[in-house]
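Q: Structure tokens for this one, please.
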Amino acid sequence: MPISPDQTPVSPKLAVRDLTMSYGSFVVMRDLNFEVAEKDIFIIMGSSGCGKSTLLRHLIGLQEPTKGSVLIAGEDFTATAPSERGKFIRRFGVMYQSGALWSSLTLAENIALPLEENTKLTPQVIRDLVSYKLSLVGLSGYEDYYPAQLSGGMNKRAGIARAMALDPDILFLDEPGAGLDPLSSRRLDDLILRLRDSLGSTVVIVTHELASIFAIANNSIFLDTATRTQGATGNPTELRDHSTNPAVRLFLQRGEEPEISPNTLS
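A: Here is the predicted structure, written as tokens:
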């Protein structure tokens, strides 16, 4: 556990202890243990079908674990009665894989919705906050546009703006780069880094895209489909270069061209 300057132990922003996830008798993943520190950009990674999005749903309280617990700043989120979970959930911001914007609402209306539902702010203050959140993601001036009028990358950024509406402690992003071209994906990566650096955001991201993983992550968990448990945790670059788990190396080194010795050339 990290230590503060006055030597007081600091609880991680999020911690998972002995977590097992199941659908009936089918175990998706078992015995997961990891921590996410403040200002981490933490990646949940693994091959398709390994349970990445299922784990995300457990972290935000949409699914109950078969065993184990999720701790938010040292408090056991999973042991809290459903009626009392609001105090935790209001500290989360979530961007779902498709962006999940309401197609019948403008961007301003989409981002204002959580503020209207969860605060007593005046309409003018909400309008100002909406404009500020859109400016953070590079969408100033698009308040009156509908999602269908924007590109996929712009909708992803709008989804992040809505996830940030209530100034969450932890931002959860499900496949933010899915379906984007490489340039749009890189711009989204740059945005996530800026949000972490300027706002001190802690970000948990589900993704399998290597370019994004190596560009932005400082911490991660690899979900191993063969063993149905975690294959490794830690900095993805260090795992790529030094992990002793063949499945981790295969996942993180895929696409790399092997070196060709001059002696092998004909």
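A few notes: The two ends are 55 Å apart (CA to CA). The CA atoms of residues 111 and 249 lie 40 Å apart.
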